[in-house]
Each structure stands twice: as structure tokens, then as C-alpha cells.
Amino acid sequence: MNSIKGDALTRVAVIDRELCKPKKCDYLCIRVCPRNRSGDKCIITDEVTKFPIIDESICIGCGICIHKCPFGAIKIVNLPEKLKEKPIHRFGRNQFLLFRLPYPIPGQIVGLIGSNGLGKTTTLMILSGQIKPNLGESKKKFDFSELITLFRGTELQNYLEKLKEKQIKVSFKLQRVDKIPETYSGKVSKLLSKTDERGILNDLISRFGLEEIQDDDIKSISGGELQRVAITACLAKDADIYYFDEPTSFLDVFQRLEVSKAIKEFCQDKSVMIADHDLATLDFLADQIHIFYGSPSVYGVISSPYSVRTGINTFLDGYIREDNVRIRTTPIKFESTYIQASRGSNVLMEFSDIKKKLGDFSLTVKKGELYGQEVLGILGANALGKTILARILAGEIKQDSGEVIGKIKISYKSQYPKTDYDGTVRELLKSVSKEVETENFKAEVMRPLELDKLLERQVKNLSGGELQRTAIAVALSKEADVYLLDEPSAFLDVEMRLSLASMIRRIVEKRSCSAMIIDHDLLFLSQIADRGMVFLGKPGKEGHAEEPKKVEDAFNSFLSIVGVTFRKDPQTGRPRANKLGSKLDREQKDKGKYFM
Ligand code: SF4
Ligand code: SF4
Q1: How far apart are CA 115 and CA 494, in angstroms?
Q2: Would you say 122 and 89 are in contact if contact means Cβ atoms under 8 Å apart?
Q3: 23-26: which pairs have CB atoms within 8 A and are 24 or more residues apart?
Q4: Domain match, 444 and 466 both
Q5: Quick check: is 569 in a domain?
Q6: Same domain, 31 and 139
Q7: In the chain, at which end, N or C, are there fewer CB atoms within 10 A of the end residue's CB?
Q8: Which H or E run includes 361?
Q9: Is residue 482 a contact partner of residue 348, using CB atoms and an 8 Å limit?
């Protein structure tokens, strides 16, 4: 972590320009501010943009404007007392502020964790030279030499000097891979061939299973394929430092492991920095961890580097000792849901052995049942027929052989929620169900998903995580016996994943329904599932599902095929991935205990 000494701000004011509508409120904030009323110019109107501007050096943080603003556009937050330093970057007046920078270390993998909206992507873009930091003064002209002088004597000085002299070559994997088709067109092979600077392209294509899509157009491939193409392009370039912004989204567990192994193997003598929310992947991959804390979309601060175990445990505990800051009110604890499982004993539906052929794909399913008030975690690679089974159970398609006893109604959230709705989040939710206006739904779903802050936003402008939370609420607003959520954790930060896990467990108990959760974040699944069902086979060709079993048995069966062992962290109870080939890894594999 590298910081700059300087004049300290005591509080940050942020005005969201998408939400702020001065013509509708006639600048209510300006009229109610007590500093303005006593003659100061605490909130004024920007002559050019016509948006209000809050002067943080005059504001006393009374909060009146925040509460009076009819559109929830203002956030004013006090900064931690110990944060007596200059910011690194600010996007504009009353916009997000970032404090400090981490530093890349040759031969090491540095992981970045923290909630969404705290500046992880901004950090990676600054370090890779895509954003020129302005030290908090949005109108300031960027001066590399000044930045280097400010960081003199820190680990970043050398890195910034080399970046300035173009002596460092950077390779970057962007976060929103779903946006790639907006800037690239043509065949996958054409895009990748331009990146083959190390002679490892064919090896990567084969490891990541991309051979069959080489002739496909970039616009026609799935999110998981786009992610693997983007990671391949990043690794294939010859660089000194590799930046990966959320590399695990859309990837199944096998693909996450394959990507992790490739990063370790091909970046042994390079610097790597990775921002991700999958704690199991970071645990497996990273040598060091920086924690991002602050107030989402208002300000973000980067902690000193920790060892991986200490870093993840400190993040979960929620107390950053060196800054004397508590980042959340209570620590995150991992409890064994399979021990405290409270599913009901009523069988919602039963099915015998099932067979189904769809085109060239064939699916076989072992007999099983679905209980009321249970969460069934579904484990397995993508394209093995998980949604086909759900559609058979819902009666939407007919199996070729086998019997389904019981009739259920399924509400489904797809793997890739759509963004083409023309309207606000509130309008979308109201168009799906009247239920969303009730106090019950607000308490049960909207607040845990923090959707009240998104209601006035246009669906088209939502970020990946915001869209995910909206899509989950849409699925849960419908009446159903079973809620089938396909990859609900994608793009959500760790805290939101765990909040979602608790919310779904509460809903199945309260509504006496069931949930089937397809996901690839093993920590999330271990928190949410009562039982597990494992899908095996060849993606896109044939899938076979094992019968539902106790979740620890399903994890054990699945991980023995993945080839990764997990142990329990004594401090937090979280499952930790053992490093491949370590003593613990070998011992657990000898005993056949892949998940302890
Ligand atoms: Fe009106 Fe709120 Fe904008 Fe102030 S911040 S002008 S109160 S919408
Ligand atoms: Fe004015 Fe600051 Fe109070 Fe808002 S919080 S009303 S800007 S003094």
C-alpha cells in the first residue's frame, strides 16, 4: 500500500448525476442547507452543468440535504479519523474518491478483495496506465513526474518510473467481458491471433476448451466463452505485468481451476494483480491480499498487504487494525448449513431415473426427490443439462423416459440476465408482480438485496452486480413452488453473496417452497445448500446427474473429480482450498476427504 501525505479531507460528498433532477425539485438541497441559510456557499449550482455542487470544506455533515433530496442523489460520509492523506484520484467534483495504491510484486500474485464500488477496477486502470490519477483534483492536468515525486521512497516509485518510460509492458483482462462484442467483431480466431506474442496461444486454447468456437463470431459466443477468450488474450500477450479484473465470472469450477493453474504456470516470473469476489479462487491463487474498504460509490481505501489467510480472515472479521476501522458491524462467520439444515420432511416432488435427448445432447438423471423448505445446491460444469432437468421438473418439456410425480411451478432466473428493458428498476419490478409494493416483499427481498437504492435507475445503465440483484428480485417476486436461480452470485461481492444466501434460506422456510441454486462459488454454495446434486459429463454433449445427497457428500464427490481439497479455517469456519500438492492436499486425497 502506498499513500501520499497531504491536506486531509474530513468528509466526502457525492452527488449521483443519474439520480439528481434539479428541474423536478427546484434545487431543494440548496434551499434547505443550514450553511447556505446562514449566508455561506456550501451548496451552489454549477454554472456549466447546472447540477448542485457541495463544498466539503464548508459542509458540517448535518445530513439535512441527504434526507430532503427526493431522489436519494446525495451521499455525505465522514472519512476515518486516521486517514490523513491525499487521495489518489477523483473522477470529478462530488464524485468517487480513491485513497492509496497497492503495488505489483515481481513473481507474486497480488489479490484485491472488497465490496463493489470501492475502486478495485479504478485501481487496476491507474496501475495499467489507462486512468491518469489526478490526486483528487479533477481539473488538474496529469503530470507523471509529479506523481512519481509524490511516491518517492515507496515501492511504487520504481514501477511508476518504468511505466512513464514505457519500460513496462502491461496486459489487461477487463471486467465486463459481456461488453467485448460492442467493440470487437469477427471470428474468435481472428481476435486471438493478434495476441499470440509468447507462442502459448494454442496451448491456452486447448486448456480452456476454446477449439470449437474458433470459427464463431465474437457476438455469438456465451459469457463463459467470452471470459475464457479474454483471459486467453491477456495471457497470450508478452507482458511484465498481468492485470485480471474479475476473471471468474461466468466460469464453472473446472474452468476456474484451469484458469488459476494457467495463471500460476505462465506468470511464474511476472507480476500479477487480480480483483475477484471468489474467495476460494483467491485463496488458491494469491500470494498477498489487499482489502478495499470505504463507502461504495463514495470513497475507497486500500489496506496494507496481508498474507492470503490473514487477509481473507481480516476481511471476514471486518476490522482493519492499522487504520483502526471497522468495515462492517459484525464479522462474517461460516456456519455448516448441512449440520443445522432445517428442511421440511414434506416431499414436494419425486422423480425416477430420467433420460432426455435434445438435438445432439443427451441427459440422464438418477432418481431423487425435492423437499419443501430445502435448498438444493447444483454443482457441475456449464452445459451439462441442469436447466433441462429443471424444465422437465416444471413440465415445460417432456422426458423421453422416466416419471415425474408431483406438479410444481418454477420461477427461473437465467444465467445471463437481460439489459434491454426500457425503463427503471421500479417500473420493471412493478410490471412483473404487484407483490413488490408490499412491506413484506420490501423486508424479505428488496432490503437484503439493497434494491431500494436502485429503484430510480434505468435498467439499461445497471452494472453487472446491480442487474444481477434486480433479476434475482424479479424471480423471487413471482409465486412458485421452486425458485431456480442460475448463477445468482455472478458479479456480486462477498457480502452480497452471503446476504443472498441468508435471504434465500429465510424465503424457503417462510414460503414453504424450495430453491435450486446452480452456482460455481463453492463458499456460497456451502453456505446455502441443504443437499447437493452433482452433474458430470461432457459439456454440450452428454450430462448425467447423480442423485441428490447430503451436501458434504456431494461436495466430496464433486471435488474428487475437480482434484482440489478443502479444509476448514479454524478462525472463521470458512472452507479453504489447499494449495495443490501441499502436505494437507496429499493427506486429504489419501483419505478420500476432499471437503472437510
Ligand atoms: Fe434536487 Fe437532490 Fe439534485 Fe439537490 S441533489 S438538486 S435535492 S435532486
Ligand atoms: Fe449542507 Fe452539508 Fe448539511 Fe448537506 S450535510 S445540508 S451540504 S451542511
Answers
A1: 7
A2: yes
A3: 24/70, 24/71, 25/69, 25/70, 25/71
A4: yes
A5: no
A6: no
A7: C
A8: strand 361-365
A9: yes
pLDDT tens by residue, 237-291: 999 999 999 999 889 888 998 999 999 999 999 999 999 999 989 998 999 999 9
Q: Is 130 in the same domain as 24? A: no
Q: Are 275 and 110 in contact (CB under 8 A)?
A: no
Q: Is the pLDDT of residue 340 over 60?
A: no
Whether 495 and 445 share a structural domain: yes
User: What is the distance between the alpha carbons of residues 451 and 86, in angstroms, rounded to a whole number?
Assistant: 33
Work out the pLDDT band at 1, boundaries 50, 70, 90. Answer: low
Which pLDDT belongs to residue 547? 93
**Mean pLDDT, rounded, of the chain:** 89
Chain-centre distance for alpha carbon 441: 24
Which pLDDT does position 85 carry in this prediction?
84
Q: Which of 42, 66, 67, 74 to mutate to test the pocket of ligand 2 (most atoms within 8 A of CB)?
A: 42
Assigned domain for 149 exists: yes
DSSP E strand boundaries for 41-118 = 43-45, 52-54, 74-78, 85-86, 89-90, 97-99, 109-113
The pLDDT score that the predictor gives to residue 318 is 92
| 74 C-beta closer than 6 A to ligand 1 | yes
Ligand 1 in reach of 25 Cβ (< 6 A): yes
Ligand 2, atom 7: nearest CA belongs to which residue? 59
Does 595 reside within a domain?
no
Residue 291, domain extent: 98-169+239-326
* CATH number, residue 28: 3.30.70.20
Angle between helices 425-432 and 464-476 (to 10 degrees): 20
- The verdict on residue 371 lying in a domain is yes
pLDDT tens string 367-387: 999 888 899 999 988 889 888
C-alpha 75 to ligand 2 mean position (Å): 10
Same domain flag for 321 and 382: no
- Are residue 164 and residue 313 in the same domain, yes or no? yes
Cα–Cα dist 28/65, whole Å: 8
Handedness of CA 50, 55, 60, 61 (dihedral sign): positive
